[in-house]
## 1
Amino acid sequence: MSRANGTPYAPHTDEETAAMLAAIGVDDEEALFDIPDAVAFDDNLGIEPRTEREIRDECARILNRNDDLTEFLGRGHYGHYVPSVVDHLADRAEFLTSYTQYQPEASQGFLQALFEYQSMLVELTGLDVANCSMYDAATALGEAATLADRLRSTSGDVVLVPEQLREGKRAVLENYCAGAELTVEEYPTADGTADVDALAERAGDDVVMVYAENPTVRGCIEERLDAVGDVAAETDALFVLGSDVVALSVLESPAAVGADVVVGEAGALGLPTAYGMGLGIFACRDDFLRQVPGRLVGASEERAPPEAARDGGGDAADARGTRAYTLTLQTREQHIRKERATSNICTNQAWVALRAAIHAATLGPSGLVGLANDCVREAEALATRIDELSGAAAPVHDRHHFREFAVRVDQPAAAVAGDLETEGFAVHAIDDHLLQVCVTDLNAGRTDGLVAAFEEVL
Amino acid sequence: MIHDQANYERDGENVREPLLSEKGEETVDVRDESPLPDDLTREELTLPNPSEPEIARHYTRLSQMNWAIDSGPYPLGSCTMKYNPKFTEDVAADPNAAVHPDRSARSAQGILELQYRLQDVLAEIGGMDAVTLQPPAGAAGELTGILVAKAYHEHHGNDRSEVVIPASAHGTNFATAATAGYDVVELPSGEDGRVDVEALEAAVGDDTAALMLTNPNTVGLFERDITEIAEVVHDAGGLLYYDGANLNALLGRGRPGDMGFDVMHYNVHKTFATPHGGGGPGAGPVGVVDELAPFLPTPRVREADERSGYERFEPARTIGKVHGFAGNWLVLVKAYAYVARLGDEGLSDAAAKAVLNANYLAERIELDVPFGPFHHEFAATAGERDAADVAKRMLDFGVHPPTTKWPEMVPEAMLTEPTEIEGQSSLDNLAEAFNCAYADTDEALGSAPNRTAAARIDQVGAARNPRLSWQALDGE
């Protein structure tokens, strides 16, 4: 028996291929292709096959062309240490090589894990419902805007966002808003946080959604979130709050400040920095349940076998009654409502949600709170040390900070960032004389080196 | 071979793996420990606090209650569940692949070079001129493609309001067009299951922005009139969009670009064997012809001069962004490794074996299979039986059933896609599972499945009485 396949992943021997062709009644595989000559491709793609080993070497060699830098980068994408247990459990093939849970009886494991993830997000946000399938914080924000449009379609078409917002996030939001014919407008910030008075002045009947972040893109902790919530409530606009899974474990509960929807990043747990891969949080009050985008897992029961029902087993669900899990509320989704669906998203990021849940479970509530508290303490400590250097002032905003803070430098920020890179450190240059520095458990051990490098280049 | 899923019993009672919360929770008084003032913090946080060994056992047991391509056949039509080579995981686990997206181009040359190579190879496979890797899923790729088409029309002062979509298309096509702000014009299928060119001519006009087409379509039929279809759409001033869901059947044998498609997305998690991960992450790169390239999302990657290697750039009339950062990058790394492993001959052979397998299986099953000949999938009909019941019974024969009740053009459809990774004996087993389930008694069908972790689940009840978190179960 020989395998003469071009692909190493097809098991057919020549004999088998011949037998199968005979069973179908054709001479060769080509006879099965129904592609007209005019559009058939008979050229070469020019892709040389390589061995596993060659590809591993090739990719390692290419990726090694990255500079070896210690990153103090954040602005929406955060590196935290991911415990080994996360990789080992999530990489089990039964999770990694499975698909969407269309046959729930055969997919109880993943469904339960996603149900548990949803539950953790319910606790972290204080809201009733959390989905498990948004791509990232930016697209979740876009979905929140279209939710606002569906819920408040008669009242207006303006989405208000803070003037200090990550550019990429704003750009994604614009793309979601364009289809819904919504307009994105900015409200001012004051010293790194929302200018609530200016926001109140701008708010009105034309506003369908007010967005705020805690912490803000500058790493500032909002001090008047409840007032932002009041402004939104008074104008009947949806109050959407952006945050992330680590910050949510200690900062004011979104539910307590009146948030209707929480979006943000859950991939801050469970994922390595991954060049921007994420997991969008989407949680909301249960009155929006049937308008929520994305996948939801619900608890249900096993049905009684038909015999039990016939034997007077009574109500089918009660007869057996063992709890089980299933994807649910699919009538909102694209495969049933098509163009009237709440979103075009089907499944996504399920495996990342699994990773985030395992990471959160590993930390437990004490570990999560401890990690978050370190994000406050380390940021404050590092800002204080940078502030002592001549030619730099930090933090620029007189606020409490979480993970990150802005630094004002006398020299052009881009030049300072470039010089720091030469010294082996990556920081953001965000404006002419502004840098931003992000510190987490992952790089906290290298702050001495960063401070020394700052001293060197300033 | 019959595959039994883990199903834990004690004294004849089902004992499921408890929820993490049922194993014990801890409440932390956040304000006691926080360096922040009380009014900026929450009062407390209550979550499970299992030990690491408990976590290891919990998730291992959960994994054993889950079907996967590594457990057995998974012939879900249109989902292209094929074997995920192990080495691609190792390639993507390189710490150098996992850097922050805000790195300067100078310090991330490795990432940029790999992105550039993948863009290039995808463009070649699709017959496209330019590719963006940003969209984080197939549906996100659809939205990107349609937004690019919209921007193109608007730039040419051509405000079109409609997207034409065959009735059999994926539901995401309709939802995507609506998300982008278009009205959807549904195109009924012709009697042979393909696009009826006359009906298409009647459907398109000055308002047509695009036709979204899957080729081969969702019952595995190649649209033989594709040249004519392209002409009709282009003559009306519209663009032709290719849904890459079924690209596996065309690898190395036909390219959307050569067929007249202007814009397409690639489901790399399907076509290029990156694992589906229980429903994501995927990635949905988008390819376009030259005329549409200026509208692609920012940033793109190109070669700079010798000294600086690769650089990011903003396309002249970019639509902006469709993901906060750079999309699902690690998925793309795996796709690159897979394509490199197969090369020209392997890609072409993957299509050949996938098509062979679909036609062989269609031949072997006793259910009616309308239409044909097939590319890599076919829709059998369960006829008078309920397709969902037949599917549940198939689980008892050790295989995962096909996609059921879709597409609607085939009644009680069982959309089946074995892919190239099943051999003859596996396909014979699959056929037997089909045939036995289909011929079984009503009682057997109604009580199935019996070899899965859970028996038949009350899905209607789950939707009527939504309980979506362990908090919602409290008090039960």
## 2
Amino acid sequence: MRRYLLNRLWQSAVTLVLATIVVFAGVRALPGDPALALAGEDRDPESLRAIREQYGLDQSWLVQFWQFVSHAARGDLGESIRTGTPVRSMIASALPVTIELSVLAILIAGVIGVGAGVVAAVRRGRPAEWAANALALLGLSVPHFWLGLMAILYLSVALGLFPASGFVPFFTDPVANLHHLVLPAVILGTGLAAVIMRQTRSSMLDALSADYIRTAEAKGLPPKAVIGKHALRNSLIVVVTVVGLQLGALISGAVVTERIFALPGFGKLTVDAVFQRDYPVIQAVVLVTATAYIVINLLVDLLYSVIDPRIRVRGEA
Amino acid sequence: MTRRLWMNRFSSRICRRSMVGAGALVALALIGTACSPVDPADGDSPGGGQSSAAGQDVFGEAADAAQVKPGGTLTVALSADPDKLDPTLSRSLYSRYVFHTMCEKLYDLGPDAKVVPQLATALPTISSDGLSLSIPLKQGVKFADGGTFDAAAVKTSLNRHLTLAGSARKSELGPITSIETPDPKTVVIKLSKPFAPLTAALADRAGMVLSPAAVAKLGANFSTAPVCVGPFKFASRVAQNSIKVVKDPQYYDAAKVHLDSIEYRIITDSSIRSANLKSGDAQVADSLSTQDAPTLQKDDTVSVLQSQSLGYQGLTINIGNANGIGNPLKQLDTPIAKDPKVRQALALSIDREALVKSIFNGLNTVACSPVSPKSEFTSDAAQVCPAHDPAKAKQLLADAGVSTPYKVEMITSNNPDSLRLAQALQGMVKEGGFELVIKPVEYAALLDQQDRGDFELLQLGWSGRVDPDANIYNFIGSTGSQNVSGYSSPEVDKLLTDARQATDKAERIKLYGEVVSKLQQDDPIIYLYRQRNLTGVSKKLLGIQVYPDGVIRTAFAGFAK
């Protein structure tokens, strides 16, 4: 286990270094200049020069990269070129919003997806399976922004059930917090729910035709226990992996959802920073995202090896 | 074909193209609005008291204290995130919305776009040689941190605007040599040369007075906790998402302030902004799309304020900006850069009337010059508009020896409104013998290409300033910092310099008229239309006003009883 862990940690570190270099170069390869984007209408050569000097944009890429890496290593992510706010505090306030949104979305998607998947597998070939399949197809193919707009138009504007925008921190008012987040979370979770449903269905079908299920049935266990304890539990291994792999899709979905519902989350922060060519913010958010990805992948792998020890053995070999 | 029929066909074509070219989100925004037959806006459309005829301004009215209940939080849906909340460093237009509630200025604009005193008590007294301005100040005014507002504070602020690294105000303030404070209620500004636009500059961010104590404490980080004189004071900011200000009990006119707090919520998509307005999650929304405004005007719960902007939208032609801005001019070797006849032909092949009617529901207005008809420096000469004449355009192209269709590439911002405009122009100029190739680019990249001189033709606008000098000099003066056209005319330079230094208003009006005549011959910029500042306001709210500077005045509003 220890060797497996070390191996995975080493791989993660290399990935992180590569990601940092790619991001740094990528941001600078974008057409457009942060000083110009910041100056907007009020630009004159003198103030452009001053902005470039102030943020070290007049330095060579190598110097800028070193500055970024050495500061980041000390936990200093710089400050936003646009607003002057420290990037660390921007991330600190945006990250919890996205995490809460994503966790809610995963929960909602998990309940809907696993439920529908089990139903589709158990009621194979019946209308229930058809309905579940149709819903999954819809969930996968309808884009978030369209769903979001429709939700705002019908549920917020016409019926007034949910707020169309805004955010209340959980600790200020938990009820208002959930009221603001339910709609975005449902919309964010649709794609994931569909994937979970399909995965649960197919692995449940595999499980249901396996020998151990026949044994369980032969022992006279009630169907509930056969499906819930034996088939579902074994099917969930694959589902956990899929959820892990889909986290990326979740974060990119959050970009759209957060913009539509004006949620102060990480996705919105990222996109706005890109539009404004706010280099320190883009670099920092991508660095944090990359780290999160790597850590999540690592955790999924570890979780996997805990659930199924055979993987650990193979990894060590 | 009748004109109306032509326009409908025209708009449906634009619609089809937009659906393909502008991407799914854009397409979605257009569904149900742009794709319905175009109804030229007319004056008698239903929509309650606030609807108005095309071209007519609705600024909103001041709140009647008897009809307003005290308290409440106003949520304003803002179309863009303001940048630094520091009057010295701020460059975005949107910061002015927030500043309006928390940083008062020496001067302000009235609804007629004339300068009126705010923290000053009267317009400046200017010495006969134009080199000295004396400004009398209000007494008994306190900053939000309790400090006293006086001449010394004004001097500190102006000096900061002039000297802080990266100051965006320095050029606006002109050739100031010193600032004197003969007594606590008078500030005297000394100049090396007369500078007529100074008073107007003091009615914008350059005239905002910062608390000297806060400046001393925060220095260049003033934006993290700005302190000025204002009806509201800064409370908090969530980056790229919201800004909150709360009522300042120290404010000298606090009795007139009804609201407890104002939250500015940044919602960049215009259709979502208007959805928030309709759902009541926001009570004010700025920069409505001309696509959404007609629907909102028909909504019983919302009224739409509109004011004509002082700026313009136009086409800039690259004449001499081959090496990028700031480098010596070098003429491009293309017919459109070399021959004014080709540029005139392009100008003549554009039907501005049809453009504003079909693309902007008649809400924007035609523009042929950088001088707004709302400016006090306008004249007949400054408003002359050459008629749409594609036949003459073709003739001019033939005279210039150019084979038609003459292909020109235009870069434009990739937002839905710009794309619709570009496609409309493309259809129009065909008749005049031009083939317009549209290259949509993201805004930050557009600015970059513009400054590097990497374009033939570009479509962009200018939000406008009160003094005409700020709308012309930088853009077409040979040494103008934003002369991206690379235009250079000694005659225009002289007229502009004279107008800048003239202290007589009639003289300035005459000079700007002459500048416009000359510009219409040379066409470095083809002026197209003036945007309307469209602001949606919930009818539950009283006292929201929008003046021609486009700033939404929310400070003295309140919820109706």
